[in-house]
Amino acid sequence: MLDTAPLQDAYRALLDAAADVADADDPSPAPPDGEWNVDQVLAHVSLVSAATIAAVAGVAAGANTTYDNRIALDAWTIEQTIAHAGGSPGLRDRISGQAAALCALARGTTLTDAELGTLVPVRLLSNDTLLVDQPMSLRDVVTGLAEVELPGHTKQLLALVPDRAVAEATR
Predict the structure, then answer these.
(1) Tell me, what DSSP letter sits at residue 70?
(2) Is the Cβ–Cβ distance between 91 and 80 less than 8 Å?
(3) What is the pLDDT of residues 54-79, one digit of tens each?
(4) Where are the beta strands (DSSP E) in 12-118?
(5) Which of 2, 46, 111, 121 has the fewest CB atoms inside 10 Å of its own CB, making it the most exposed?
(6) Residue 9 DSSP label
């Protein structure tokens, strides 16, 4: 059984941070060198969410599946995702729907403990650094999204809000 409350909370925090950026004096602040802007962060999260949904649905369907985030790092794919969604508002809507879908699929009443324990070949990269290249349980893939991926991008978004960035830097 998987408690999806932490996943829901992580998505809510990310979407709240995206709304904070949208409500800021400059809703499209320039990111620090080498970092993504708000649309790119949201497109990346949308692509990662879609890959996670696909992995969960694949296991639920009894199919062999993998989890690989490289497509979610591809600049062309990110820009196409932004264009297809219509920018930040569309990306926020898309992520909200993906969060609901993923939580519904991963909820304890949908997947059994055996399915959540299914080992999935995982390849995760960040900034051209290989982080994971080994089988992980589907449960760990989903909890990693809730505990690491989404909170990291939430902080990245909040750093784009000038008042928040100053507050974070002085902590």
Answers:
(1) G
(2) no
(3) 999 999 999 999 999 999 999 999 99
(4) 67-68
(5) 121
(6) H
